[in-house]
Amino acid sequence: MKILGIETSCDETAAAIVEDGKHILSNIVYSQEKVHSDFGGVVPELASREHVKRIDSIVRKAVLSSGLTYKSIDGIAVTQGPGLIGSLLVGISFAKALSLSLSKPIVGVNHILAHLYAPELEFSIKYPALGLIVSGGHTSIYYVEGVMKYTRLARTRDDAAGEILDKIAKYLSLGYPGGPIIDKIAKNGDPTRYKFTIPKMSDHSKDFSFSGIKSAALRIIRREGKDLNIPDFVASFQNIIVEYLVSNLFSFAEEYKPKSIILAGGVSRNSQLRKAIEEKAKKRGLKYYLPSPLLCTDNAAMIGGMGYHYFQNNDFLSFDYPPFSRFEPKGFRQKRQ
Ligand code: KG4
Ligand code: ZN
User: Fold this and answer.
1) Is the pTM of this model over 0.70?
2) Does domain 2-116+295-334 have CATH number 3.30.420.40?
3) Ligand (nearest to CA of 138)
């Protein structure tokens, strides 16, 4: 089954063709980074406008470069949420129009769960797995018993990890998006120079909270003023975020005894995070799956790939079903606290 995946939940306009949920025939991503960089973050209104401008050519490119024609596609999978409503509406409306004009069935895919699915496109995953999704909008840990069997164990209660990397980089005028810039600069810094501590939740939950680290970072920046050593500071800041993510993830690993660790989302491109996960997983004899960079950040191959399983479950998108901006419960279970 050849599925056209369409993704427009944030600032990437993306389309891909994936066969049987596994084989990527094409994967086209247009990043709007340049459009938003002057603002130091995604401007929702500009993102929607940019999607409108690009979506037709990006989808056409994905179909052409796969060697298929529109007629030979078996179905369409589109990101239904969560994400920016205006951006989602562009992808969904385009996908619905295509579905009507080509008489092809359509499914609406959950963006977060699709991130967790992305490593399936490159690896044969040993389940059960623990999945860490860490991006500009989300930071959560899932227990994954198999494809479409997800239980959320922890989430962030405030900012996402990528969000605070981007915000602090913006505050220091380092550029946008901040995550990859901090990753690069941190390589030349001393991560022990500035002191941060891992937050502890008052209710002993292993949910994340990044706002305390962000406030501590701002206090240090203001205190040090011109004396702030940027490489040492960003190395220390990145280091505490990585330590925090990894310590919660592996503390769940102790409890749930998974066979493997899955990493997903834009921040999973981070070199220190990848290294830390690799080291810890090896030490504990766990398999680990680190997707290649294009499959970490927002892409449509993960939507087309996961869409296949929605088709298998006959989970079609009804034409009056709207996008959703926040996480929606279909396809996952929340652990009882
Ligand atoms: O998954 P994604 O493309 O979009 C969202 O759904 O948010 O993730 C984007 C996030 C941004 O916050 C960006 O700064 C971060 O991923 N990011 C990185 C790196 N590359 C991208 N963060 C740390 N290190 C990187 N190398
Ligand atoms: Zn994403």
Assistant:
1) yes
2) yes
3) 1
